[in-house]
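Thread: "does anyone have the structure for this chain?"

Original post by V.I.:
We have the sequence but no experimental structure in hand. Need at least a predicted one for the grant figures.
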Amino acid sequence: MTNEINPGGVTDSYDDVYDDDHPHEECGLFGIYGHVDAAAHTALGLHALQHRGQESAGVVAYDAEHEMFHSQRALGLVGDNFSSQRVIDTLKGTSAIGHVRYSTSGDTLIRNVQPLFSEFKFGGLAVAHNGNLTNAYTVRRNLIDRGSIFQSTSDTETIIHLIARSEYGRVVDRLTDALTQLEGAYSLVALTQKKLIGARDPSGVRPLVIGRIDNAYILTSETCALDIIGAEFVRDVDAGEIVLIDENGIHSIKPFTKVPKRFCIFEYIYFARPDSMIEGKHVYAARKSIGEELARESHVPADVIVPVPDSGVPAALGYAQESGVPFELGIIRNHYVGRTFIEPTAQIRNLGVKLKHNANLGSIKGKRVILVDDSIVRGTTSTKIVEMVRAAGASEVHMRVSSPPTTHSCFYGIDTPERDQLMAAQNNVEEMAKIIGVDSLAFISIDGLYRAVGEAKRDSDQPQYCDACFTGEYPIPLTDHDGGGKPKQLSLLTERD
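Reply from O.Q.:
Generated one for you, tokens below.
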């Protein structure tokens, strides 16, 4: 049974309009097996993961007593669609998986909302994934040539079709067979009548952790989703590992050819919630350490350190502590502009940052200000922030960025513009400083970033993380992309080339 909520509308989000100086989050996963409150815990877990995707949310539960899968999918936020007891009561069962989505493949349509569910010869299967399959277009074309009929433009559906066509018997073998035909970065959760399954790609680019509450096991993107329900952290799922959870407990297989691990370093800079622990590191501590390193590399005389809220706060704290310059909340963020009845016309866009940020006059007037932010993508929001701080009376405005310049697009599940829209790909740092309007601009170095997360430096022969957005060194093939990096688009409407 599938119940589609809000099938005709989308949630307006000013993050999409005014937050383009940041890459957008990818997706968040949650799965639980063996708990009477499976659906409620899944909804709460998705609440904690809302930062990873705000376009849509979905939950699929399995009711063993009546041998039925139940599904609720919705466009919009978790709290708007999964907070009522009425909705939770429709998701009966002791196992469930859930997903929050920011689309990097496929349009914002109800048919693309995950988890995707299908009936197979072996029974029902629900699948949700975080990341991006870099050969999904190619594989999809081959499947269509062989008679497959696709119902969505999500690359996740490619996994379902490969599972359906596999000649293996067991579900885990079918899934393994499917994943060996795919390239890209992914963490995945799947639900059958008897099992909860989790998997990470061989390079381990996207996160996935194991938790436990009472006698129930959990798979989720971040530990903050465990904290919200009082679950304990067990461990990270390893790169290239498939985890099987059933009534006999938890089992693990590693069926893929081993390759060097390349976890996404941007998770520590921006994507993960500060209160999460990922790959053995506390995100908040890592961000403070990045700020400290940034101060050591590029400090200038100043009166106050001001974060660009909210993502710049931990790095700014680290910067202030290392430099000895006072930390001030010189910019105040309005947290209630996520949705509005106001149409985002050109005139409203010109108000832009004022809807989301406002200068705290008393903290910055007449002072030399260092703004700390986590990234610059197009540069438009940074320019407006600087204009606002100058208008509030700052005598100098410097900007320090806790990531290296973003010079390349991400094809592994992070929504970034094409390269010709990336400010750092088209301009050097001095040119960027002039465009943004700051007295000086500096980014953390790539080696400084690696030092901040516990490495001596970046190993140029075998980097310890995926840092392709800074270096252009892509660890996983980009089969579906042309020579300029432009992706081929999945579509249900276009004819074959």
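V.I.: this helps a lot. The two ends are 36 Å apart (CA to CA).
O.Q.: and The domain at 282-471 is CATH 3.40.50.2020 (Rossmann fold).
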